[in-house]
Write a structure and sequence with these properties.
It contains six helices and five strands, in the order ααβαβαβαββα. The protein is α/β, with parallel strands linked by helices. It is globular and about 40 Å long.
């Protein structure tokens, strides 16, 4: 998990890097947004801890030179649009999210705000970025391509073993993304 936290912090740091010298000189407090589905629970708090610890390792300390505006949809995807407006009103300089519906709401409602993705799956198919190699626009970050890798792995395995009786994944249809650029947020 520390690697994921480090990768996220690196993405955010690269986004904020051009302003680093300025922040050290004038005591600027950076405001970033975190848009999620649910607040941390005892089982998931390590993810937010890794996130804030990683930021601290790069010199961004909450309460000192960093403010994080947390917003959560509480399972109501239709609420993301309002949460995006709240983050814009809070004057955040970038937003971090791990949910595809949240990222789609950010793309629609905050066209110039930098967005850092934390492992969303298939951002190209979802319409978030043009390509993984050259995302373009204001969205960057990490993509979870595990389902693509698994599908390719087993499709190549199936061609070498036509009966495919030894794998627990035989007969399971391919995973399709739930969201796309044409899927309205909140559905």
């Amino acid at each position: 998990m520390r690697r994921i936290g480090l990768a996220v912090v690196l993405s955010i740091s690269l986004t904020l890097a051009p302003f680093g010298a300025e922040a050290q000189q004038d005591g600027k407090v950076w405001r970033i947004g975190y848009l999620g589905n649910f607040p941390a629970t005892p089982n998931t708090s390590f993810l937010l801890t890794a996130f804030t610890d990683g930021l601290r390792e790069y010199g961004y300390v909450e309460g000192k030179n960093l403010t994080i505006e947390f917003r959560f949809a509480h399972g109501r995807e239709e609420g993301y649009a309002e949460l995006v407006r709240e983050l814009l009103h809070a004057n955040v300089e970038l937003v971090v999210t791990a949910q595809t519906p949240a990222a789609l709401a950010l793309k629609q409602g905050a066209k110039t705000l930098p967005v850092v993705l934390l492992g969303t799956s298939n951002p190209v198919e979802a319409g978030l970025v043009q390509s993984l190699a050259r995302p373009a626009g204001t969205i960057t970050g990490l993509s979870n391509q595990a389902e693509t890798w698994v599908a390719r792995s087993f499709s190549s395995r199936g061609s070498s073993s036509p009966g495919c009786r030894s794998s627990p994944f035989c007969g399971i249809p391919p995973i399709r993304p739930r969201y796309s650029a044409s899927t309205p947020c909140g559905r």
